[in-house]
Amino acid sequence: MSDLDLLTQSLARSVKHWRAVRGFTLDVLAARAGVSRGMLIQIEQARTNPSLGTVVKIGDALGVSITTLLDYEQGPKVRIVPAEQTVRLWHTEAGSYNRLLAGAEAPGPLEMWEWRLMPGESSASDPHPGGTAELLHVIAGELTLTVDGVEHRVPAGASVSFEANAPHMYGNSDEVPMEMIMAVSVPPVR
Q1: Other CB atoms within 10 Å distance of the CB of residue 151
Q2: pLDDT at 30
Q3: Full-prediction pTM beyond 0.70?
Q4: Sequence-separated contacts (24+) of 145-153 with Cβ below 8 Å
Q5: Which H or E run includes 112?
Q6: Cα separation of 45 and 16, whole Å?
Q7: Residue 95 Cα to chain centre, angstroms
Q8: Phi–psi pair at 170, nearest 5 degrees
């Protein structure tokens, strides 16, 4: 079987799976994605090879990544992310940073992050969608977590969870670097 055939079949399985998880009918997904119902039927029956633009629209409408839609491995999925493949999305000249360590769709996006904040630095976050939860575990230093204007001190060894649908900020008012692991769970698109 060619790679194209594997991808076509994987896309068919994935679209059917995620449409069922989200509780979308063909008509609902077609309307959300701006793709015809007929095209969706052909995709779910592995009878067409849609354009990348069509796959992006379907992924956006389902709230899943393109890589999730096109992953043709079957069976229990284990994905190891080598240290050199983690993604640093934010950093400062003083040495603060965050790195996306791993992610999954379970049933909505689930991410695990490593954070380091140097003394006196902070990073603000806009509110996430309702139902988003964050779990933080401080490994070193002390986190100053501000949620909706209220400050919370989280020392090394302690963990905290909060609803992240309000403005929040991670800060380090200590004199030593603060290091933490963070998990973010975003609700699925409905």
Answers
A1: 11
A2: 96
A3: no
A4: 145/169, 145/170, 145/171, 146/171
A5: strand 109-117
A6: 9
A7: 24
A8: -100, 130
